[in-house]
Amino acid sequence: MYKRRNVWKNFLCYGLVFSCFVFVINLFFTSRPASPPSYVELKREDMLQNLVEETSKNLTSYAYEECEYRSVVLESAVLSPSAEAGWSLGRGVRDGGVYAPSECRPKYSVAVIVPYRDSVSRLYKFLMFMHSFLHHQQLHYRVYIVEQMDTEPLNRARLLNIGAAAAMEHGFPCLILHDLNLLPVRPANLYACTKLPRLMSHYVKYRLPYTVISTNSIIAITSKQFKTINGLSNKNDDWIDGLDARLEAHELKMCQFEPELSKYYNIEYDESDWVTSLNQERQSPTKQNTDDDGISTNKYTKVSTVLHPQFTHIMVDLAVRSYINLNYA
Fold first, then answer.
1. What is the CATH number for 242?
2. What phi and psi values does residue 64 have, to the nearest 5 degrees?
3. Position 249 in a domain
4. 125: helix, strand or coil
5. What's the pLDDT tens digit per position in 88-104?
6. Which of 155, 158, 165, 280 has the smallest number of Cβ neighbours within 10 A?
7. Whole-model pTM above 0.85?
8. Which burial class, exposed, middle or buried, applies to 227 when counting CB atoms under 10 A from its CB (0-12, 13-18, 19+)?
9. How many domains does the chain have?
10. Strand runs (DSSP E) across 73-225, as ranges?
């Protein structure tokens, strides 16, 4: 009887050890989504010295003093999506969505590039908010809305490539690859390029009561860096992971401001899109295939370009066969 009890005890002990072993093996060796890449974090006190001070060659300013940005990055205000009501709405903005402060000489020229299709109400909200926000930061900027006119699935990467090409042709040294649905929470999140490409949207607050890392991200990158990596891949719309891999292929790192300064509101959240984007596999291109696929190989038909009072509207057709090559040189 005593021996039989020992046999059962040994059986249970070995069974428990085996179960723990199987659990550990499954935990470490089963396939899981790749963890997000790590970025260099810039502290608030280091922000200004890491910014690239460069303006467009065609910018003319008669102001005696340079604009001062330390007060901007030290600002502690937290905005709501309706914060534009407290600021000037589009005062001084020229046709094409171009603005430069008249009271001081700006140190930064930036192009804000937004892929777009069939979202008039969100576009209006975005423009009202962002013009007020950028006006407050005393930047020289231009807003490009790139609209896909065909019925094919929306390809944000190709639209961003097209907008970037237009911005570089107009001499903008800094590109902000934006999302129509995202509005910045902190005025201290200065819309200028850093020495390293920057992930601007670290956290995104949705209408749901929680905060998550966004796949619909906002990136600040210099025009020189964008040319170096040949822009974004035209083959798919998972452009943020593709950008990470392209930067890695060219030995470029990404940075970000402190998470508290990099928060955004999402004014239109689609849960199915979030889950699909989150589960896509990350690309790993080489330098060679970034040369073969990107801004230099993007083909499209330009339908029209219209200079509206609040933005430059570039309308394109990505689906037709009689393409023209995108000339960004």
1. 3.90.550.10
2. -80, -40
3. yes
4. helix
5. 555 789 999 999 999 99
6. 280
7. no
8. middle
9. 1
10. 98-99, 109-116, 140-148, 174-177, 182-184, 198-199, 203-205, 211-212, 219-222
